[in-house]
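Narrative summary of target 7.
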Amino acid sequence: MKSFIIGTLLFFLSPVVLSQNKNVKDETKTTTTTVKDSKGKKTYVKKENTREVQNIELKDQNPKNINMDVKETPVLVEKTTTITNPDGTTRTVDIDRSAYYLLNGKKYNLLLDSNGYRILSEDLKEEAFLRKTTTNSFIYRNKDRIAIGYFDLEGNLVLETYDPKTDSVTYEKYNLNK
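Modeled conformation, tokenized:
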């Protein structure tokens, strides 16, 4: 008899415990990129997951009312980007800077890859790559030079290159194509 009463109580109280007081919206965008270079084709899969969570609160909680208005509450947005490399390994990226950039009238595509970013020309030929450092900057490397790169407040990629002949630093800016 005792177990019957406890079982009945649990049955009637379980909807209260299991009710959800949140609106949750999950959205996943998958992008597949194929890069051709001298080594062959490489396929990268980028998954951008956006999760929006909003708590549900009532405006005036009057027990006499059946229908109550919902109060506006802030929406918490979490964005995560994961990259699946051609070798099957996966990594998570904090901020995705993939976009088109302009330099000297030429358009370049900055794409995530297994260790950082690849810079591709308009005909999808690999021009250079970027590797993240511990100081929130990047090492830029192409066939001719190595430089330090970073993103400014407008999202442009700025490269700083040391010239040993003149003992000076030159600046070059890839402008974000909006």
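The chain has a mean pLDDT of 83.
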